[in-house]
Amino acid sequence: MPAPLTAVVLAAGLGTRMRSPLAKVLHPLLGRPMVAWVVHALQALGADVIVVVNHQEDAVRAALPGVRFVRQEAPLGTGDALRAALPLLPDAGPVLVTAGDTPLITADALRRVVAAHAGAANPVTVASFEVVDPTGYGRIIRSTSWDGGAEPPRNAPHTPGSSTSTAPGGTDGRAHVPRHVRIVEQAECTPDEALIAEVNSGVYVFDAAYLRAALPALAPHPPKGEFYLTDLVTGPATVVSGFDATLFAGVNDRAALADARLILRRRVNRAWALQGVDFADLESAQIEVDVTLHPDASIGLGALVAGKSDVAGMVGPHSIVNDSTIAAGAILHAHSIAVGAVLHPGAQAGPFARLRPGAVLLEGAHVGNYVEVKNTTVREGAKANHLTYLGDADVGEGANIGAGTITCNYDGFAKHRTVIGAGAFIGSNTALVAPVTVGAGAIVGAGSTITADVPADAVALTRVPQKTTPNLADKLRARNRARREANK
Ligand code: UD1
Ligand code: CA
After folding, report:
1. Given the DSSP bridges, would you call strands 443-444 and 459-460 parallel, antiparallel or unpaired?
2. Does any ligand 1 atom lie closer than 6 A to the CB of residue 100?
3. Pairing mode, strands 337-339 and 354-355
């Protein structure tokens, strides 16, 4: 049985480069704060997770259930942050350390680093990867000598694997020469070191006993007096290399945040696609982490499904779904918005529909373009196909709501209900002044303003009678022409 794993997540920095009042690690990615992605991966490994906090400490604590916290009093660098966690660390066993700003790490990658540490005798293991532009990362310096002198840059790609006391690939004739590893930060690189493409991922495993001895001995770096976690990587160390660079990409600015979002979107969407969900486009659709999709659900180009939504039906292109349920066989057509809404099987809404909280479309109900529905049940087979507002209403089974119909639910003081009976017909451009009830089977003529209840099967019409005068149009035109002439 492997030793229990302790994990420390460094999340105390403000992240100045984000240019945001929100602490860097709280920036959301698919509905989950950046640091919570890291914690999720660690919890999947079964690690006991400790998070080092300072900036917006309360919000960071609230975002992370099931972990322990420790406070770093001042932002004195990554080494100081880990030092703050020292009182919570066990006396022995592996301690996995990661930053809170690498949200793309996976449990699989972390498992590989932990396994490499367990399989080597070194007290230190660090995960590395190679990048085209290493700017901003610490460079991995390997040396054959015990004084840690640099050897030439390693720019050649190599196969995945861990190199401990062996050269990468073991093919350069120095396969069994003991290796020392150290990390040089961007600001302290010599021009030669700056060329090194192999960089520090910020993911390490240390023996707890080593940390107890080495952390108190860290020395500050001028000019800011920061303590570097990377100074713990000195002497014999295991480097686990060959990772896909995107797994460990650090998010230091908003451009990297957007890149990370794109990668996570693809990753989440792919996983759903393998579960049988149909995606028009794996990159533009965004499915947030608390959403449930069902096999055969269909997600359109550029659709956003957020909150605690549950989708078995179809979400059309460029539609937004939040905290809503779309049952199998239901369709939210293109460019629609559903927030807190429920579409039962066979219900349809849109294109260009807006369903607000409490909108419930029962089986086969249809609301069409430019229809807004709030706190309203549209019962089986009822239709409101164009340009309508249904607020605080109950629309009976099979009722037909004409274009331009409005429920006047608000009198300036309070909201009132409108009840429309089964099979009722509401003519176009009707204003239903709530509270009001239109009985089952009743007919309301177009253009009416209904202020009193209409009994079942009655016909109500408030329209002003039409007045038609033959040939008046010609006379009006002649009169207007004469006026124009007179004014010249
Ligand atoms: C760090 C590494 C660098 C590595 C890179 C990988 C150091 C000195 N450098 O650089 O070698 O290539 O990560 O992404 O470690 N933090 C604290 N308290 C502090 C400072 C930072 O908790 O006082 C936290 C931050 O919130 C962040 C993490 O530590 O989550 C990393 O800090 P950051 O400033 O982003 O380090 P990098 O410059 O990226
Ligand atoms: Ca960083």
Report:
1. parallel
2. yes
3. parallel
Cβ of 77 below 6 Å from ligand 1? yes
pLDDT along the chain (488 residues), means of 10: 88 92 96 98 97 95 96 96 97 97 97 96 96 94 61 42 42 43 95 96 97 97 95 93 92 96 98 98 98 98 98 98 98 98 98 98 98 98 98 98 97 96 98 98 98 98 94 96 94
- Structure tokens that stand for 255 in this block: 């451009």
Cα-to-centroid distance, 250 and ligand 2 (Å): 5
pLDDT of residue 144: 67
Indicate the SS3 state at residue 479: helix
CA 381/CA 396 separation, integer angstroms: 9
| Strand pairing category for 124-130 and 331-332 | unpaired
Same fold flag, 6-147+159-248 and 278-460: no
> What separation in Å is there between the alpha carbon of 103 and the centre of ligand 1?
13
- Non-local (6+) Cβ contacts of 344 within 8 A are 327, 330, 360, 361, 362, 363, 365
Query: Which listed ligand is nearest to 10 at the C-alpha?
Result: 1
Residue 149 is predicted with a pLDDT of 44
10 lines ligand 1 (CB under 6 A): yes
Q: Where are the domains of the chain?
A: 6-147+159-248, 278-460
How far apart CA 383 and CA 368 sit, in angstroms, is 8
Nearest CA to ligand 1 atom 22: 12
Superfamily of domain 278-460: Hexapeptide repeat proteins (2.160.10.10)
Q: Is the separation of the CB atoms in 31 and 307 below 8 Å?
A: yes
State which of 51, 52, 78, 196 you would mutate to test the pocket of ligand 1, scoring each by most atoms of that ligand within 8 A of its C-beta.
78
CA distance 238 to 292: 41
**pLDDT at residue 162, rounded to an integer:** 54
Q: Tell me, what amino acid is at 471?
A: N
Question: In this structure, which residue's CA is closest to atom 1 in ligand 1?
Answer: 202
Judge if the beta carbon of residue 302 lies within 6 A of ligand 1: no
Q: How many helices (H) and strands (E) does the chain have?
A: 8, 40
Query: Quick one: which ligand is closest to 140's CA?
Result: 1
The torsion angle over the Cα atoms of residues 193, 198, 201 and 207, rounded to 10 degrees, is: -80
Q: Is 230 in the pocket of ligand 1 (CB under 6 A)?
A: yes
What six digits make up the tokens of 24?
């860097």
Q: What angle do CA 289, 292, 297 make, to 5 degrees?
A: 120
DSSP secondary structure code for residue 403 in this structure:
T
| Centroid of ligand 2 to alpha carbon of 268 (angstroms) | 23
- Residue 318 is among the residues annotated as catalytic for this protein: no
pTM for the full predicted model: 0.89
For domain 6-147+159-248, give the CATH superfamily: Spore Coat Polysaccharide Biosynthesis Protein SpsA; Chain A (3.90.550.10)
